[in-house]
Design a protein that fits this description.
Elements: E1 3-8, H1 14-23, E2 29-31, E3 34-39, H2 41-50, E4 56-65, H3 69-77, E5 93-98, H4 105-123, E6 139-144, E7 147-153, H5 175-185, E8 193-195, H6 202-211, H7 232-244, E9 254-258, H8 261-274, E10 280-284, E11 298-301, H9 306-309, H10 312-326, E12 333-338, H11 343-347, E13 353-359, E14 362-369
Parallel strand pairs: 5-6, 8-9, 8-11, 9-10, 11-12
Antiparallel strand pairs: 1-3, 1-4, 2-3, 4-7, 6-7, 12-14, 13-14
Helix pairs in contact: 2-7, 3-4, 5-6
EC number: 2.1.1.173
Pfam families: RlmL_1st, THUMP, UPF0020
Domain THUMP: 43-154
């Protein structure tokens, strides 16, 4: 059976997730912060395992227009719920409504739940209350401009929860957001990579996972594993296929630095849990002390911005140190994430490009400084 699937992600990341899906072999369509694609059970497992930038993979069970609660009730009830929910299914319904006639989210949730209960009670010939003691099937009713989407979440806890973060710092970057920054940079595994303010190591760890081609969902659980219509072999086969694509012999030059030795120790702990500690060189080092003879590299930094340091002046001193330190690295590309709109003045250079991104609820800008790599010329073939 082929399902209408879609991936959700943070605002500003849509094109990255779409590109990931296209690289996995899917035709995509982006609409209102979602990237739609089609697939079967194997594709549900595959995309949950492999998507680095997304939050969740959902099945769109139904989409329709509704401006009254009667419309909503009847159209929800008409959906083939017995194909998705067994008799004992626990099915919590989350609700969202944006710029729609049916604007009361609690009422939208309640009506949707009642319609599903009525349908299942009819199909399963139940006159008493449904037990809901079985596996959890997380549902959502989302209404945008009167267009309703009823979906089943196949992921469970967000895909950023890779399972390797044992410890964290004060303001950790979500794993899928860190991966998105790397994918945006177009870094390749044969290029040096530096995370100069590594904190708990997330950016460096995600780079190593990309470099080794390790599927980010290999060590976590998914909601669909408990669905009674998805056999355990589906995920087992997807994991076996992903394992066969890993590149254990890939040589990597990935460096994670932090001024705080305690954070370096935490980063090492997390990297070890992710299975990539031997791929990353962690070291206590201040930004201003960074030097390298390597060329054609990528620097991605998530430095403490004013909100985290509670001292914007101190943050801007760090930005200036970055500018002074990186200015001579002509062949390197630098990507710095911050919410400080005056960053360029402190850094001392106008960015090649700026991209607006949301780090959680904090609006940030990714300041991009593109380098000019110098690649060795291929030797001319002898005639």
């Amino acid at each position: 059976m082929t399902y209408q699937l879609y991936a959700t992600m943070a605002s500003g990341i849509e094109s990255i997730t779409a590109k990931e899906l296209q690289n996995l072999g899917y035709e995509t369509r982006s609409d209102n912060g979602r990237v739609y694609f089609e697939g079967d059970l194997a594709d549900i497992a595959k995309t949950n395992l492999w998507l680095r930038s997304a939050d969740r993979v959902k099945i769109a069970i139904g989409q329709f227009e509704a401006k009254t609660f009667d419309d909503l009730f009847e159209q929800v009830k008409a959906l083939p719920w017995d194909q998705y929910l067994p008799l004992d299914a626990a099915f919590p319904v989350a609700g969202r409504s944006v710029r729609s006639t049916l604007h009361s989210e609690p009422d939208v949730q309640a009506i949707t739940k009642k319609a599903i209960v009525d349908k299942l009670s009819t199909v399963y010939h139940r006159r008493t209350r449904l037990a809901e003691t079985g596996s959890v099937y997380p549902l959502e009713v989302s209404i945008l401009k009167d267009m309703v989407t009823i979906s089943l979440d196949t992921t469970g806890p967000s895909l950023f929860k890779r399972g390797y973060r044992l410890e964290k710092g004060e303001a950790p970057l979500k794993e899928n957001f860190a991966a998105s920054l790397i994918l945006l940079s177009r870094w390749q595994p044969d290029m040096p990579f530096v995370d100069p303010t590594t904190g708990s190591g997330t950016i460096a760890i995600e780079a190593a996972l990309i470099g080794r081609n390790i599927a980010p969902g290999m060590h976590r659980k998914f909601a669909f594993e408990d669905f009674d219509w998805i056999d355990a072999t589906v995920l087992a086969d997807a994991k076996a296929d992903a394992k066969a694509q890993e590149k254990p012999d890939q040589e990597l030059e990935i460096f994670g630095y932090d001024i705080d030795q305690n954070m370096v120790d935490i980063a090492k702990l997390n990297a070890n849990e992710a299975g990539v500690l031997h791929d990353i060189q962690f070291k206590q080092l201040a930004v201003k002390d960074f030097k390298t003879d390597l060329t054609n590299g990528v620097i991605i930094a998530n430095p403490p911005y004013g909100k985290r340091l509670s001292d914007q002046t101190q943050a801007r001193v760090l930005y200036k140190e970055m500018g002074d330190t990186y200015r001579s690295l002509k062949t390197w590309s630098k990507y710095i994430l911050t919410s400080d709109l005056q960053f360029q003045e402190s850094f001392g250079q106008r960015a090649t490009k700026r991209r607006k991104l949301y780090n959680g609820r904090i609006q940030t800008d990714l300041f991009q400084y593109w380098g000019r790599p110098v690649w060795p010329r291929a030797e001319k073939a002898e005639k």
